[in-house]
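Supplementary Methods S3. Complex input for the glutathione-bound model.
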Amino acid sequence: MRRLGQKLYTYPGNPRAFKSLIAAKYAGVELELPAFNMGVTNQSEEFKKNFANTAVPAFQGAKGEFIQESNAIARYVLSQTAAGAKLLGYTPLEQALIAQFIEMIGALEAGISGWLYPILGYRTFDAAATEEAKKTVQKWLGTFDKVLLERTYLVGESVTLADIIFACTTLNAFKMVRWHKPPRTCACVRACVSVC
Ligand SMILES: N[C@@H](CCC(=O)N[C@@H](CS)C(=O)NCC(=O)O)C(=O)O
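Predicted complex, serialized as structure tokens:
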């Protein structure tokens, strides 16, 4: 089943948008990427009428569904076909573990943003805040290293939404930071990205 007429508003190269673009590939559905001008399209009256705020990615379904928050959009995209729903977990335990890791990835993301945003010019550099952010990244990557010591995927024996979100969230950190001792999570990120 291919759902047509679904749109994803984003600027190019947005790792948060990659989550639903990857989800769409797994689900076998199409996502159109309409022309988008950051700060213009998402500040337009039309956009503000449809969405709760001006953040992207933002999803518009063919039946007039409007969804924001990249994790929620990816979840919705996967839920559209049996092939995609597989990545949301079959059992209540798998679903709970996927939710658990998505929460943890949220905590990791806060550290990654605190570290990288001043480098990307999105935020003013503050040495103490950067040190704090680095500690957060180290703490949570340590957690994922421990989990991935004996497994390839975060939950079960194949890719789930948790892996997709993990790969997309850590993408820029692995691209931009020179690691003295690369975390094991590199392998998982490479695995996730390469299968997508
Ligand atoms: N938690 C949100 C964060 C979305 C977000 O912060 N998007 C940024 C770009 S990556 C944005 O659109 N900022 C501009 C705005 O909020 O107007 C998600 O995962 O989708």
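The pocket of glutathione is lined by residues 14, 16, 42, 54-57, 69-70 (CB under 6 Å). The mean pLDDT is 92.
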